[in-house]
Each structure stands twice: as C-alpha cells, then as structure tokens.
Amino acid sequence: MTQHATTGAGRLYGYAASGLAALIFVAFAAMAPGVVGGQPVLADWPWAPSLNILLAFMVDGLSLIFGLLISGIGSLIFLYATGYMGDHPRFGRFVLFLFAFMISMLGLVMARDLITLFLFWELTSITSYLLIGFDHDNPRARRNALQAMLITAGGGLALLAGFILMGTAAGGYDLAHILAGQGLQEHPLYGPILVLVLLGAFTKSAQFPFHAWLPNAMAAPTPVSAFLHSATMVKAGVYLLARLHPTLGGTPSWTVTLTAAGAVTAVLASVLAMRQGDLKQALAYTTLMALGMITMLLAGSHPYALTAAVTFLIVHSLYKASLFMVVGAIDHGTGTREVAQLRGLGRAMPVTAVAAFLACASMAGLPPMIGWIGKELIYAGGATMTGAPLVLAAAVAANALVFAVAGVVALRPFLGAPVRTPYPAHEAPWQMLAGPIILAACGLVAGVLAQPLLGAAIGSTLTGSLLQDRAAGLHLWAGFNAAFVLSILTFTLGVMLYVMRDRFATLVDPVLRRLPSLDNGWDQLLDALRDLAAWQTRVLQTGRLTGYMLAVFAVTALALGATILHGRPVIMPELPRSAFLWLTVGFTAAGAVVALNTHSRIAAIAGIGTVGIGVAVIFIFAGAPDVATTQLMVETLSAVMFAIAALRLPGLVERRSRQRQLAHGAVALAVGLCVTVMVLSVTASPLDRTITQYFEENSYVLAHGLNIVNVVLVDFRAFDTFGELIVVLLASFGAYAVLKRKGRAGA
Amino acid sequence: MNSLILSVGARFLTALFLLFSLFVLLRGHNSPGGGFIGGLIGAAGFVLYSFAAGVDAARRAVRVDPRAIGVWGMALAIIAGLASALASLDPFTGLWLILADLALSTVLVFDIGVYLAVFGAILTLVFALEETL
Amino acid sequence: MSWVLALPIMIPFVTAVLAFLLRRSRMGDLASVGGSAASLVVAVVLIAEVLDQGVIAGQIGGWQAPFGITLVADHLSAAMVLITAIIGLSVAVWSLAEIGPTSARFGYHALFQSLLGGVTGAFLTGDLFNLYVWFEVLLISSFGLLVIGGRKYAIDGAVKYVTLNLIATVLFLAGAGLLYGATGTLNMADLRGAVAASPDQGLMTLIAMMLMVAFGMKAAVFPLFFWLPASYHTPHYAVSAVFAGLLTKVGVYALLRVFTLIFVGDVGYTHEILLWVSLLTMLTGVLGAAAQSDFRKILSFHIISQIGYMVLGLALMTPLAVMGAVFYLLHHIIVKTNLFLIAGVSQRLTGSSDLYAIGGLYRTAPLLAALFIIPAFSLAGFPPLSGFWAKFVIVRASLDLGEWLVAGVALLVGLLTIFSMTKIWAEAFWKAHPEGRQPALADLPRSARWQMMVPIIALAVMTVVIGAFPSAFLEFATKGAEQLLDPAAYVAAVLGEARR
Amino acid sequence: MTPTAFMQTSVTLALIMVGLAIFIGFIRLARGPSLADRVVALDMMTTAVIVVCGLYAVRTDAEAFLDIAVALALVSFLSVVALARYAERLGRRNDRDD
Amino acid sequence: METLVACLSGFLVATSIWLMLSGNLMRFLFGLLLLSNGVNLAILAAGRLTPGAPPLLGVKGELPADTMANALPQALLLTAIVIGFGLFAFALALTIQAYRTFGHLEVDRMRIAEPAEERE
User: Fold this and answer.
1) Boundaries of each Na+/H+ antiporter MnhB subunit-related protein domain copy (chain B) (predicted)?
2) Phi, psi of A193, rounded to the nearest 5 degrees
C-alpha cells in the first residue's frame, strides 16, 4: 500500500473513533443497572407532530444488549482497522463511514418510534453501501455494494409500508404505545403488516431467499465484515423481529414463516459454509446460519426459545467478530485467505492462533464456552416450539456442520507443518490482536460466569422487551437432559463431518451445483430490468418527432372523444343563411386544402394567406375591426417572413405512406371534430355577459376610452398585454440568437 | 431587388407608414388601432425599406439596434405599470392628466411601450431573417 | 396589498431590462444576480404576509375582480414564488461560472430573468387567461435559453421541445377561450362558482380534459412527456437546471390549482384518469432513466417519474395526499435543480456527461461526492432528507385509502430511483476515470469554484434542513392543502363578498 | 322598396359578388401554374377584402371598418413585394418551386 | 352563424394536425399557422358572434342602440394572435437554423440529441 502524507492523521482518527466507541460502551454499561432493574431509559423530541411522528429513543434490556455489543465490538474494530489499514490514503473517510454506521446502528436499536427506527434502518443501508463499496475501483465491489443496497433498501421500502400500516392499525408510531397495547394479531391489517415487516427483516438479515447479498458483501475490507456481519447490520433484522415479537408474534403464520425461513437458511448456509475455500466466505455463510437459527428461535413464543434466541445472538456476535478479525490477521500476515494454502501458522502467529481456538470453541459449542450454553438453550428452546422435531433436526444438522466448519477455520490453518504463503507468515500488530483475543476471551468468561454476568440482562430482555413472564437460566451444566443428548449427537456428527469432509463434498457438490444460483439470478434480474427499460425507451422515446406528435394528438382525441361520450354535452347546430358567410367559409376552407398537400412552397404560403384573409373577413363580419386589422397585419408579416425564409428552405415532399396518411388523417379529423363539438356545445347555452357589460359601462367613465377593446388591452387587462409584449420581444430575441449565433460543434 | 419604383418610393412610403402608425397608435384608445397595430404598421415600413435598399441601409435608417428599441418599449411599459405606486394605487392603474382636449396618461405610455416593443421585435426578426443568406 | 403580489413578477422583468441594456459589460451579470436577490427578498416578504394573513389577493389596475386581473397568493403560491426566487438566485450565481460573454450578449440574462418572471406570474395569477400569458412568457424564454448556446444538438432538442410545447399552449388557449365562452368569466375564483352552476356539466368535464391534456403536457406526464427527455440534456447546464426545477412544476401547479379550485364537478372521472396517468408516469419515467447512460438524461427521466408522485397526490384528493403533492413539489424543485448543477460541475471536471466516459470524482472531488449524495438520496426518498417525507406522506395517503397497487408502485419506483442514483454514483464517482484523469475541484478557477459550489451547498443544506426539521414545512404544506381542498378563503379573498 | 332597403340589398349583393371574386381569384391561386399567377391572385384577393371592408362599413354604418381598409391598403402590397422578390431570386437560382 | 364557424374551426384544426404530422418542419409551420387560426375562430365563436356593431362607444361614451359585439373575447383574440405570431416567428427561425444544421427538414431524421440506440 502506498504511503500517504496523512497516514499519521488517519491513524489518529482510528484511535479517536475507538475511544469514542469505548465511551459509548461505558455509557451503556452505566445505564445497565437501571435498565436491568426494570427502568428503561427514555428520551423523545417532537419531529413531525402533524404526522404524529416522534424522534424517540428508549434503552431497555434488548436495546442494552445490542448497544453493548455494538459499541464494545465497535471500539475493538476501530482499533483493529487502524492496524489493518491505517495507512490507506482514505482511511479517514473509512473511519467516518464506519463510525456513521455504528451510530446508525445504535440509533436503530434504541429507536422507540417506528419512523425513527426506519430512519436509522435506512442509514445503515446507506453507510453499509459506502463501506461495502469502499474498494471502489474494483467493479466487483461496486456490483456487490449495489446488490446489498438494492436488496436491503427494497426490503426497507416494504418495511416502511409495513410501519405505516402498523401506525394506522395501532393508532400511532410510538413503540412504547404499540407494545403496551393489545398486540395487532387480531387486527384486519395484520396479514399485510406481517408480510411487509418480514420482508424488511428477512432482507436485512439475509434470510433465504434474500441471502445472496451477504456473502458478496465480503468484498468490503475485513474490519467492515467483522463489524457489519457479526453484531450489527445483519442483526438489525433479527432485532426487529425480536422487538416486534410481542405485537406481531405468536400467530400460526408468524411461527410457520419464521421457522421455515430460519431452518432453510440455517441448514443451507451451513452446508455452503463447508464448501468454501475462502475463509472469509466460510465465515459469511456461518453468519447466515446463525441468523437463520435466531430467526427460527424467534418463531417460538416460549421463554426457553426466546432466551435461546437472545443468548445465541450474544454468542454469535462475540465469536464471529473475533473470527473475522482473525481471518483478517491471517490475510494480513500471509497474503491469502485460501484454506488450501494455509497450514501450520500456529508457530508464526501464536496469539492469533489462541484467539482462533477460543473463538472456534465457542462456535463449535464446546464447554465451557458461552457457545455451549447457547447450543444447549437452542435445543431446550427448540423442544418447546411448534414442530419441535423438525426444528431440532434442523438445529442439530446446522450445528454439526458449523462444528465441522469451526474445525476447518481454527484447526487446519494453524496446525501441521508450515507451507509457503504469498508473504512469509508473520504476526499482526497489537492493534489487530487486541480485538480477537479480548472477544474470544469474553466468550470464555461469559461461559464460565454466564448467569452472574448475563442472566440479569437477558432476564430483563425477556420480561421487559419480549413481555415473557420469565427467562431460562444460563448454566454450563443443566443436567443430563434431552438437550445434553442432542449436544453429544451434534459433536459426534460434527467430528464425523470434519473427518469425512472430502466424502461429504463429493456427496453435496453435485446437488449444490444444480441448485439455481440466486447470485446469477440477481444478474439476470438486473439484465431483465435493463432490457425492459431499453425496450420501453425504444417504444416510447423513439427520437422521432412525428411519433411524439402523433401520440400527443391521439391522446388529445382520445381524452376529448371519451369525455364527449362520457359527459354528453348539449349541442344545437343551427345553420346561417348568409350567402356571403358561406362563401367566406368556403374559400377559407379551400385555402387550407391547398396548403394541405401542395408541393409548391408558394402555393402553400398563398393558401395559408387565403385562410388568414378568410378568418379576417369573419372577424369583420363579427364586428371586430381591431382584431381583423391585427390579423391582416400579422398575416402579411407572416407571409413576408415566410417568403424571406422560403428562399433558404428546400421544397416540400410528401413522404408518408398511404397507411400513415390514413392514420394521421383519422387522428386529425377526430381532434377537429372534438373541437367543433366543443364550440357548438359552448354556444348552445347563453353567455353570461356580466363582465363585458361592466366594460361597456365603465370604459369611458372610468378608463376614458371609447374603443372598448383597446381599453381592455391597455387598462382592464393591461397585465395580459404586458406579458404579451414580452412574448413578442423575447421571441425576437430567441430568433435572433438562433439565427445569429454561429453554430458550435458538438453532438 | 432592382425595381426603380420601389427604390424611389420606399423612402416616402416608409415615412408614410411611420406617420400612419403613430396616428393609429395615438388614437387607439378611442378608435380601432393602438400600440399593436401601430407597431406592426411602423415595422412594416422599415421592412419595405429593407426590401428596397437592403438590410444594412435599413439598419442604418433605424439607427439603433432594434432589440434595444424593443427593450426600451418594455421598460416604458414597466414604468407605466409601476408609476401608479407614486399615487399609492394598485399596479398598472392608469393615471390621467387631462388638459383641455389633450389626455395624457400612463395608459398611453403603456401603449407606446407596446408600440416600441412590437416595432423592435418585428424589425429584429425580419432583419435577422434577411441577413441569413 | 397588491404591490407585494405584483413586485415578485415585476422585479425579474426590470432585471431583464437592466441586464439586457448592460449586456456588454460584467454589470449585466451582476444585475441578474442583484435582481434575483431582490426577488428573493420580496418573496420572503410575500410569504410572511401570507403566513400572517392567510390568502391575500390584489387587483391589477385596481379593477375589482372578476373584471380585471387578480393576483392571489395562498400558501402554495407563496411557497412556489419563494422557491422560484431561491432557485433563481442559485442558478443566477451558478450561471456566472458557466455563461460566457457571447451568450450574455445574445441576451441570456434577459431571457433567464423573464423565465423567472413568467414562472412567478403563473404562480401568482388568479386569472386563467393571464395564466396562459405567463405560460407563454416562460415558454418563449425557455425557447431562447434552449438555443442560446448555439450547439448543434441543442437545435435538435429545441425542434422537439418547441413543436410539442406549441401544441400544448394552443390547447391551453383553446381551453381557456372555450371556458370563457361557457361561463362568461376568466377569474379562477369566479370560475369555481360559474363552473359549478353550469347547466352542462358534460361540457365542463370536456373542457377540463382539454386543460388536463395541456397542463399534463407541460407537466410531462405519461404519455405526453416526450419533449422533456428529448431536450433537457442539450442546453447550458444552468439552463437545464432551472428548467428541471421549475418548468414542469408550473404544469403541476396548474393541474393542482385548476383541478382543486375549478373542476371538482366530476372527480370520479377526472381524478381517476389522473390516478392512472400518475402511475404510468412514475413507472415509465423511472424505467426510462434505467435505460440511460448520460448524467443529464437519467436526471431528465427522473423528473418525469417524480412528477408522477405529485400528480398522484392530486389524484387521490385527500387532505394528506394533496399535502404530499404540495410538499413533493417544493422538495423536488430544490433537489432536482441541485442535481443538474452537480451534473454541470461534474461535466466541467470530467469533460463529459456520458457516464461511461467519466469517473474518478469520489477520489479527488470528495466535496462534490458528498454534495451529490444529499440530493440523490433525497430524491430516492431516504430519511432524514426531504424526499423521505414527501414519499412517506404520499405512500401513507394511498395506504390510508386502501390503494395497495398505488402504494406498491410508489415504493417500487422509489427502489428503481435508488437504482439510477447508485448507477450515477458508481459510474461517475466511484469508478476511476477511463482516461485516468484526476478530476478535482481545484481544477476550476477560483471564482468559478465559488460561483458553482456555493449554490450547490446552499441547496443541499436546504434539503437536509427540510428533512431533519420537517415539522414546520409539513405544517405549511398541510395548510396549503387545506386551502386547496377548501378554497372558500381563496374565493373570498379574490371576490370579497360581492359576487356569488 | 325604400332607399334604405335598396341600399341594404345592393350591399348584400355586392358582398356576395366580391365573395365570388375572391373565390375565383382563389382558384387561380390554387391552380397556378406559375408563381406570378399565384402572387397576383393573392394581391387581387387582398384588394377584394379592402372592398369587403368598405361595403361592410356602408352596411353597418360603422366607419371603423374603413380604418381596416386604409391600413390594409397601405400594407397589403408588402407581401406581394416579398413574394415577388422570392420569385425573382428563385428564378435567378434556377430553383423550381415544386 | 356559430355553427358554421365552429365547423370551419374544427376543419382548420384537422388540416393543421395533418400538416403538423407530415414530418416536415416547414409543413409544421404551415400547420401551426392554421392551428392558431382555427383556435382563434373557436374563441371568437365561443365569445358569441354578434354581426354588426363593433365595440366602440359614441363620442361622449354613450352606448349604441343595438348590442355591440363582445369586447372581451376580441381583446383575448388580439393577445392570442400577437402571441401566436411571436411563437411562429421563433419557430420559423428555428426551422431555418435546423435546415442549416441538418441540411434537410425531415424531423424524424434529426437524431443528434437522441441518437439511435447502438448497444442492443
């Protein structure tokens, strides 16, 4: 990486952000006693009172757990990032985005108003877009950032609709109010609300079938993955499910949907995780598995299931953040993340190895790690759920697979004889080691001291946020029960899978290959969208002016014609007897006919001139000398200008095919007919002449003029005339510019 | 165009046009006419002149850039519209000064503005068209 | 009273005269900026008056309505005037950096100011025929501005723009004339009563449709929008910015005004049509954008799609929906103008507007990148930017009515908007410049940098402020919508107790 | 038949005849075939309109229509001059009009 | 009388549309002129046709004995005619410039601003 002048400053930003995050962590910790004691912290400001929207926040048990995880892991991540990429030329920008992301995430978990929540939800989408695409010179990164953005933002829009409906159903957007109410399970809008909210949550938490974006999001720098895909971004969806569990949960549709989506995601993801050659990809898929597991547990309504969900969430955040950082350290130290190229790193990277072992032990669910308690609880909770056998089977399968993956990640790279790597393997700097070690150690400490450390927080989450009457206890030894048996089964299966992973590969690979790839489907979807767009543009925006005009006139004819049929205006035709008028109308129309098809420019001009003269005669006939004079003057000047212009213009040729002519003629006649009908209908009833009468009476008295038309023009309606003179003047300006400005190149 | 009658007559005709246009302008408030028609007729005079003597000669005869004439007309119309502020009346209210038989008013100023704007605009147009060969 | 209404219209024309007379010196440019600043001051006074007194009306020439021409300002009009002044000043300043002495000598500033005058006149007039006149003023100014750069493709764009818009204005003229013939009045407040009292309601609907086509064309709704994408990418950037902000909005304003004040007799028919039109407008606009690869063309198509939202608000005709339309109108002017200005800076820095031929702005022009994010994401409807509230209100209004399809389309279009905005972002900002250029703001001359960036920053700040502190703006829009849906105050202000 | 009635009838008859004249002039204008034919026909029609103005002034007893006649008489030949110029230049360029 | 003018107005509108659609810019201009005339006639007819007395008052401002023609639509028409002329003049200039730019007046072949799609 190239050295940059601002390197020192960049690192400083990293440390500062880490410190700030640590302060936030402390602040949350300080809030903990009160919150655990059942006193959530509340704050709100009016935001859009006319829409009944608050900028409202609340810290209860659930928010507290998330807040601690986000700020705590965040602090370590900033430290890690400083070691990992502190000399990147745009590291300052990186820290800024990551910090903005952290704040958005904290806002999300503390929001008490649905719209406030949505605000931060979307902010996480934007900031994660910028972070995933941080390596913006790489087209792959840009593509994957877009994918993440579109899927999560699309879900976000569904969520918005869901929230709006919830607001309507519950009579407000204030969560405190909604959760205190009856729950919306019986409300007629429940169905749509559920579908829309789940769409939002599933896309954000990458549940099947929206999971494709998450592994692709690994294009981001590793600190981003470690943060976004362990404790934060992807957890937003599960957070939302947990948060809304009391008001939306518990119905059959909730249970079935969550169980199915969670189970499929968990199993599929863990199978896929087994098959990844890239360590980071493998971790990404196990993240999916964890999200699936939590979603599945949130389908339940029993305290055991929910305790398991919350506990497993903590478990996963701790080990996954740690492991991502470990992988980053390996990448940093050796130049590769390919499992196949990594052996025997334990000697060169001892601290990393320790962190990896500890984290993987938690991931595998080995005692006395917190992961063991989490797994036990999953089985205990799963047993309470509807469809328990299926749930348990899925859980065992997923856990066993993850056990094997843990082996691949933690054992293989560090054990055995060292092999050649792109760089000679070396330990990472301290900034990059602090995070993994601390978090992995937390997994151990939390396991040993589970109940004293976490019991109260989880308890208050269950009773305060999820409105259960109690929580399950967190014990390393819960007795020789069904859960224990299943754990043993899991280990056995896991070991078998690890040992026979090549056999397993030959077994599943053909199946996996045949599965439709959602990622390819994504590209096809976008291509289809582009094709549709291109097709539409070809059809509508053809670049051919006659097509545009035909559309405009056809729409006019259609709009007027349909309305005539719809409203049936009254018409009373009545033919005049004046022979002179007939003659005038006759030659006017004939003049138009001459202009219609002639190839001679002069004949066309003369024809138009005839029409002008005819119209002027009608004006005379109607007692409008001013108008007639103006008409004749304008007609003369138009003819003069045309005559000047015609010298520079080519002759006229009719190029339309017979068919076109017919179509154009039909549209033209239709519009003309509509105009005639309108005029006839207007003249069918008498005119209210109040205004004219006023003009006639006051034109001399008040405006000192005998020519009423002129008085109207310069006095009664002088403002029209003012605009009109500007139009004429500006027309000449425009024409002058168009004719005189020498054409510049450029196309 | 080399028609003797036209080139000889054009000077007189242009003067006649101008005179007639002023006449139409000034009496417009009471009989058919007014700024528009006056402006059109006045401009027609110079159009004829340009036919007879060429655009350059016509431009010289007008002396000022026709666009500027038009803008001054617009300025006059604006002044006429805003003048009523002095009498704290609504905008575009006519102010009348009637001396015996002669009526002077902002309304007339406004009409003169219209005249000049139309006059300038048409000459701008026709001259620009003529010059694009 | 009437002066505060007339001055916002008159000042731009005075400025136009001054700017033209001073066109050969730098003073012309300064006159334009000064005049725009004066307009802004007057617009602020106007809106203060309106906030203070409700709907205000003034009679031109002192002729009592409905005999003379009335100027009226309610919340909507006053806000539109203010925003026009803001856009006017921003673009006038921005123009200093783009418009060269040649365009100035051909009367750029005069045309530009007249455009603003015409737009303001259209917002303030209470007379249908006078509205037509202001439409023409802004139209002819826009013709001039479109071609003043003298580029070849501008001629092509102008041919399409001019021909199609001429058709629209003739339709408007015919509609106004026929409506006069049917009711005997042109005053819009008076027309409300006259149209309602007309014995031939079928005819009223028919004239309403004629005006709908005319205004719909101005507003660029489906399927009458062709002129917009054909021309908006061809003139000076300053010109397309002010077009993008204001021109179509005049059409939307006219629709809003006429179809809440005058033609409410057959809402089941007219507004149902508007509803379908709005949906198709949203969809076709956003899909059109997805097919483009030119910065300004993408933005042009998005104008169409966003117009759909505003028309949708009108079509739904509930207080909340109309409020959404009003809010959308105001927010969109700021955002869209800003995006075109940013496109202008981008073109200046990277040398093209073809997204496949440019890039690298993110790395070397981070300020511009940050400033693009704000309006772009506001357009896409992300909180806490102004566009979020606009979209929120419209979607909520349609959901409240149980219009699932409408809400779905509105949301889908939001998603596709994100798609286009991120496309611009990825191609122009993230991607490296294909020719390896390193476009940076420092490349601009010092003065141009200020002239271009200050308006962009100001507009971006407005977007953020409206989004972050929406309550005052929402309440304002609510009040505006109330006035639209119940025009009693409007009618009373115009006509007094005298007539009808 | 009173003199007024006689006057009215004659004016109406005259109007119809002028109308016919315009129509006949129009036929020349439409058929051409030469450019000069058309230009002259147009001029003739304009002149006929001047007559219409006069007759109409007599019929309605409103002198306002005479003003149109005067103005038109003054300006009408402008278009003829312009068209003639056009014809002349076209001839010089050997450009056929159709 | 209105009926006949209404028919003429509709006829002029129809012919103008046919001309406008022809794809030739000069014909579009012819169409534009006819369209203005047609619409002006429609406005005149909508304001009712009163054969005879022009809206002029007597020397002392007295109203004439028989009803006068409606002054308001006449004023509107005057405005409309002049505006129409301005628009026409601009369109004419644009046509000349388009011819100088493209060498022809076929609008469908003016494809600089919206070139035919190449990537397909």
Assistant:
1) 5-124
2) -60, -45
Could you please state the CATH topology (level 3) that the domain comprising E2-51+69-109 is classified under.
Helix Hairpins (1.10.287)
Cα distance between residue A110 and residue A68, in whole Å: 12
Residue A199, CB-side half-sphere exposure with 13 Å CA sphere: 18
**pLDDT score recorded for residue C81:** 96
> Does residue D98 sit within a domain?
no
Q: Determine the Cα–Cα distance for residues C117 and C109; give it in Å rounded to an integer.
A: 12
pLDDT of residue A45: 92
Assigned domain for D62 exists: yes
- The answer to whether B119 and B76 have CB atoms below 8 angstroms apart is no
- Asked if B32 lies within 8 A of D78 by C-beta distance, the reply is no
Residue pointed to by tokens 């100023």: B109
CA-only gyration radius of chain B, Å: 17
Range of the domain at B49: 4-131
Report the candidate in A231, A219, A417 with the shortest Cα–Cα distance to residue A337: A219
Q: Do the beta carbons of residue C343 and residue C299 sit within 8 Å?
A: yes
pLDDT in tens, E43-73: 999 988 877 688 888 877 777 777 788 899 9
- Tell me the two tokens of residue A541: 């925006």
List the structure tokens of A2.
């190239």
**Per-residue pLDDT in tens (0 to 9) along chain B, 133 residues:** 567 777 888 888 899 999 999 999 988 888 888 889 999 999 999 999 998 888 899 999 888 999 999 999 999 999 999 988 888 888 888 888 776 666 778 888 999 999 999 999 999 999 999 888 6
The C-alpha of E101 sits at a distance from chain A's nearest C-alpha, in angstroms, of 8
Please write the tens of the pLDDT for every residue from A152-210. 999 999 999 999 999 999 988 999 889 888 888 899 999 999 999 999 999 999 888 88
Which residues make beta-bridge pairs with C73?
C56
Assign residue D62 the CATH number of its domain: 1.10.287
Q: Is E36 on the interface with C (CB under 8 A)?
A: yes
CA–CA separation, C228 and A720 (whole Å): 27
3-state secondary structure of C310: helix
Whole-number Å distance between alpha carbons of A150 and C119: 38
What pLDDT was estimated at residue A654?
Answer: 78
Q: How many residues can be counted in chain B?
A: 133
- Among E32, E42, E48, the residue with its CB nearest the CB of C166 is E32
Q: Is the pLDDT of residue E119 over 70?
A: no
Whether E46 sits inside 8 A of C182 (CB atoms) is: yes
Q: Which residue segment(s) compose the domain that D78 sits in?
A: 3-93
**Distance separating alpha carbons of residues A605 and A594, to the nearest angstrom:** 9
C-alpha distance across the termini of chain B, in Å: 15
CB contacts, 8 Å: C153 with chain A: 746-747
CA separation for the pair C182, C188 (Å, rounded): 14
List the single residue in A with minimal CA-CA distance to D64. Answer: A625
User: Chains C, B in contact: 3+ Cβ pairs under 8 A?
Assistant: yes
Helix A370-384 vs helix A388-406: crossing angle, to nearest 10 = 160
- Rounded to the nearest 10 degrees, how much is the dihedral formed by the CA atoms of C429, C432, C438, C443? -20
Asked if residue C34 lies in contact with residue C15, where contact means CB atoms within 8 angstroms, the answer is: yes
**CA C155 to mean position of chain CA atoms:** 23
Q: Which of residues 48-87 of B touch A (CB under 8 A)?
A: 66-67, 70-71, 73-74, 77-78, 81
The neighbour count for residue E23, using CB atoms within 10 Å, is: 22
Pick B125's closest partner by Cβ from E82, E89, E100. Answer: E89
CA distance A126 to A148: 10
- Mean predicted confidence (pLDDT) in A477-493: 88
Domain boundaries, chain E: 2-51+69-109
Question: Could you give the number of structural domains in chain B?
Answer: 1
Token pair belonging to E52: 């005879």
Yes or no, beta carbons of A707 and B30 under 8 Å apart: yes
How confident is the model at residue A313, as a pLDDT?
A: 93
